[in-house]
Design brief:
The structure is a single chain. The protein contains 33 helices and 18 strands. A hairpin with a 3-residue loop joins β5 and β6. The chain folds into five domains: 247 residues, 3-Layer(aba) Sandwich (Rossmann fold); 76 residues, no CATH class; 111 residues, Up-down Bundle (Taq DNA Polymerase, Chain T, domain 4); 104 residues, Alpha-Beta Plaits (2-Layer Sandwich); 132 residues, 5' to 3' exonuclease, C-terminal subdomain (DNA polymerase, domain 1, Orthogonal Bundle), CATH 1.10.150.20. The chain has a six-stranded mixed β-sheet with strand order 3-2-1-4-5-6. A five-stranded antiparallel β-sheet has the order 15-16-12-17-18. By secondary structure, it is of the alpha+beta class. It is globular.
């Protein structure tokens, strides 16, 4: 007889895991929602894979728990929770409510204790399989003879594993679930600040427990250890009280005063309208498709999605966020995006597998060099261990050592970058992080998302994913595919065209600066673009007071930084850090820039004043963003000012103009058999075109993109083509 299943969700563990594993995602209203997205994504996967009859969600409650009373420093090392994370907890609760999943929580206890109580209440139901869904391994101690399992995340929010008794023993070299609390009693748990026995690591803890079974029996036979290892005996003897306290902290309670209503926990997806409304409010368009697939309604997903986006557009129009022109534009671009999603782009999986092996080899070599320098093997991904090695054991950093609010060593990329000239280990560590991210985010992740039927990646475009109107994409995100370096180029080359076809890319040249020139009316900027001159060279000539032909590459680079930095609110301190100039020099350069381009400086000032007075800014065609520039908090106010300047420029450029170009291009070539538009990446449109037809379509694409709007400066488009996205060359006449 088939067992029924109940899924018990460790909500806080999943929320925290998703928040830190995913890049920042924002809803159409600007609210950060990456934790909500990760939670929803895991929930849908769990429903699909496990097909549970019952689901409940356990939550932590604010305030201290009994563990804090037992040990005042419990979790004391954790940094203050980001506001961006705190604000997502109620959104996850909304999501859980939309799924009609009951919430279980109890003041003074953690979600783990609530979960322990649920499985205890159900322990006699042998025909009911209990599966705990979590983002960590704390619940492993609850696993029993096959009736209780733990479904958790190995990496990010997409790589999952199910632990039963056998899997726990494999992971911990023979230790079983019932020994997990004893294991933490010895080794401790840095994530919860459970101390354990100092000097005892994972290997020693496992060896001791395999021989003695548990902490109590170990201490009964402590004399045996004295004979074998006096040093180990001393550690255990001195820290006996701490060891038993650590075990006590690690033990999950099973008697929390919570009620379990199995009728309320009965899971049913027959009515998912509230879920879909919530998904579209958050901008989770792809999850609507996945939700439909759960119900066997994948065929209806696109039209349903289109309708719901249409409802959202209607709402924005009625609220005055969209002008008539923007409302019509967004309606017109919807079918274009759906067509591009269905087309997808071909991915050379083999080349990425080859690249993965190459990166793995370099990572292995880096780790070898780092551990040799450190004089011991350690986890390079552990910030705690890394801080200990470089700042205590190697005594590096000197007066520039920075610590977090909790007193831990700051080991972020920004801090390591500041120290890279002081010792070779910092360069190695930065390279390790760079390669690890490339490997996990792109090289290993992208092949898993390929459609097995056509070998193509089918991203989902988030039409209203940014308040500026700029398109974004997800599952996978193809907006941030790397371009720089050997490996970045190799990843791009994996996006390829079918045999007999080419990838054609049409890229707006300096579109945001051209829009800034037109909106501001800055005479020098307009003159530069109308003459067909390079704006960065002209800027360098002005601020360095040299002739254009005397501008060096370095001068142009600094000018480019200023052109974009000043435009979006970069201050003197940030410019000094990026350029290597002193703070005083940076101030002088910015002052010189604002003097030379006074029209742009006045425009930026006027935008801020307008936003402060009317509470919103808007694009050229009337896409509004409501924004508060009157916050008493200087940091919030500065951020709002940057957003106020960004919206009219970026919104007009990569929101309004690019979308308008896509609509017009679809009208002209959308029905052709020898070309199709497949991607939009910021200010770039990507096509697949038959090799013989590339020269025919290049001038058509260029003409449409350059004339979709008339500004005070010409719009320029550069077109390249090649066998893949990484090897593109200008098309010769």
């Amino acid at each position: 007889m088939k067992k029924e299943k109940i899924v018990i969700i460790d909500s806080h563990a999943l929320i925290h895991r998703a928040y830190h594993a995913l890049p920042v995602l924002t809803a159409p209203d600007g609210q950060a929602v990456q934790a909500v997205y990760g939670f929803a994504s895991v929930l849908i996967r769990v429903i699909k894979e496990l097909k549970p009859e019952y689901i409940v969600a356990a939550f932590d409650m604010a305030g201290p728990t009994f563990r804090h009373k037992e040990f005042g420093d419990y979790k004391a090392q954790r940094p203050v929770t980001d506001d961006a994370l705190i604000n997502q907890f109620p959104l996850v609760r909304e999501l859980v409510s939309a799924f009609n999943i009951p919430v279980l929580e109890c003041q003074g206890y953690e979600a783990d204790d609530v979960i322990g109580t649920v499985v205890e209440k159900l322990k006699n139901k042998k025909d009911l399989e209990k599966i705990i869904v979590t983002g960590d391994l704390d619940s492993l101690q609850l696993i029993d003879d096959g009736n209780i399992k733990v479904y958790t995340l190995k990496k990010g929010v997409s790589d999952t594993v199910i632990y039963d008794q056998a899997a726990v023993k494999e992971r911990f070299d023979g230790l079983g679930p019932k020994q997990m609390a004893d294991f933490k009693g010895l080794k401790g748990d840095p994530s919860d600040n459970i101390p354990g026995v100092p000097g005892i690591g994972e290997k020693t803890a496992i060896t001791l427990l395999k021989e003695y079974g548990n902490l109590e029996n170990l201490y009964k036979n402590l004399k045996d250890i004295k004979t074998k290892s006096p040093k180990l005996f001393e550690k255990l003897s001195v820290n006996k009280e701490q060891a038993f306290l650590s075990k006590k902290l690690a033990v999950i309670k099973r008697d929390v005063p919570v009620d379990l209503d199995m009728a309320a926990a009965s899971f049913d997806l027959s009515d998912d309208e509230e879920i879909k409304k919530l998904f579209f409010r958050f901008g989770f368009k792809s999850l609507v498709n996945r939700l439909n697939e759960l119900k066997g309604a994948a065929v209806k997903s696109v039209p349903e999605q289109t309708q719901l986006i249409g409802d959202e557009l209607e709402d924005y129009y009625k609220k005055g966020i969209f002008s008539e022109k923007i409302y019509q534009l967004e309606k017109d671009v919807r079918p274009v995006l759906r067509k591009m999603e269905r087309s997808g782009i071909l991915l050379d999986v083999k080349s990425l597998k080859d690249l993965s092996r190459k990166i793995a080899g370099e990572l292995s070599q880096i780790k070898k060099e780092v551990t040799q320098t450190a004089g011991e093997d350690f986890n390079l991904n552990s910030t705690q261990e890394l801080g200990r090695i470089i700042f205590e054991k190697l005594n590096l950093g000197g007066p520039r050592i920075k610590k977090t609010k909790t007193g831990a060593y700051a080991t972020g990329a920004e801090e390591l970058e500041k120290l890279k000239d002081t010792h070779p280990i910092f360069t190695l560590l930065l390279r390790w992080r760079e390669l690890s991210k490339l490997q996990s985010t792109y090289v290993e992740a992208l092949p898993r998302l390929v459609n097995l039927k056509d070998g193509r990646l089918h991203t989902t475009f988030k039409q209203l994913g940014a308040v500026t109107g700029r398109l974004s994409s997800e599952n996978p995100n193809l907006q941030n595919i790397p371009t720089k370096g050997e490996y970045g180029s190799a990843i791009r080359r994996a996006f390829t065209a079918p045999e007999g076809w080419l990838i054609l890319a049409a890229d707006y040249s300096q579109i945001e600066l051209r829009v800034a020139a037109a909106l501001s009316g800055d005479e020098k900027m307009i003159e530069t673009f109308n003459r067909g001159e390079d704006i960065h060279t002209r800027t360098a000539a002005e601020i360095f007071n040299v002739a254009a032909d005397k501008v060096t590459k370095e001068m142009r680079r600094e000018a480019k930084t200023l052109n974009f930095g000043v435009l979006y609110g970069m201050g003197a301190r940030a410019f000094a850090q990026s350029s290597g100039f002193t703070l005083e020099q940076a101030r002088e350069f910015i002052h010189e820039y604002e003097t030379d381009f006074s029209g742009l400086a006045k425009f930026i000032k006027d935008i801020k004043n307008k936003a402060r007075a009317q509470g919103y800014v808007e694009t050229l065609w009337g896409r509004k963003r409501y924004i508060d520039l009157n916050s008493p908090n200087p940091g919030f106010r500065a951020a709002a000012e940057r957003e106020a300047v960004n919206m009219p420029i970026q919104g007009t450029a990569t929101g309004d103009i690019v979308k308008a170009a896509m609509v017009e291009l679809d009208k002209k070539i959308g029905s052709k058999k020898d070309i199709k538009m497949i991607l939009q990446v910021h200010d770039e449109l990507v096509f697949e075109v038959e090799s013989d037809a590339a020269k025919k379509y290049a001038p058509i694409i260029k003409e449409i993109m350059e004339n979709v709007v008339q500004l005070a400066v010409p719009i320029a488009v550069e077109i390249e083509a090649g066998p893949n996205w990484g090897d593109l060359k200008k098309i010769k006449d």
